[in-house]
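The instructor's notes for this session suggest beginning with a concrete chain rather than abstract definitions. Hand out the sequence below and ask the class to guess, before any prediction is shown, which regions might be ordered.
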Amino acid sequence: MIEGQEQSLNPEIRIAELEARVRELEQKNAELTQLSYRDSLTGLYNRRFFDENLGKMVDEHESPALDERRANDNNREVGVIVVDADQFKHINDTYGHAAGDEVLKSVSRALDTLNKREATDIVARTGGDEFVVLLPGMNEEMAAERAKNLWSIIREFKVRAGEDLIPITISLGVGSLKLIGIKNALYAEEIQLKGSDLPPDEINTKLEEKKKEIFAEFLDQVDEAMYAVKKEKGSDQIARVSEIQNKKISPDEAA
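After discussion, reveal the predicted structure:
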């Protein structure tokens, strides 16, 4: 028997080869998972990643990022900034989709640059011209300061389309989500569901649906604040949910 055959039949060598292949497959699977969480145009996280991580912030009892910024556990919050690229449809229609893509890439670069200062923040492209920033441990006032920084950075950006330089502006909505409030709402829902004799799997499914419903309602509030200010003052503005609610601007007026 030749030396190569002896090695291939050696159990220890075969085990080492199999372990190496398993590690290689695990690495490739991890890479594929990361790709499934990324937006192909901008390289930012996508809506799937955003939703999953917002859910994890509610599920986890301890979060170093939250504890770092907010000492009082009962007041833990997640700041949220919704970013909308102004005049995006007009830019697409006037200068072409390539120019529109460059606008989105420019906004994403500004978001990513600002995000690198805080590794715990999550930036995602959640729609065509809409981005969302999650700020663990930040209340609305703190998130508004971050929004002002982003607004200032974006105003320095321009996109070239042929001989034209297109200025980029954004409108921002700012709010914060109190995690304890969500946990209490989910706990009340769980008690109610357990009293209906549903199987555990179905209860878990309905709780996940309830969680998504709460998140969607909150993001709608931030969106409504942003569009209310855009209607009142035009584009290139920052809107805070609390200020809009204090003014009692109705959703119909903000549409």
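Then share the key points. Confidence is low (pLDDT under 50) at residues 61-74. Residues 44-254 form a domain with the Alpha-Beta Plaits fold (CATH 3.30.70.270).
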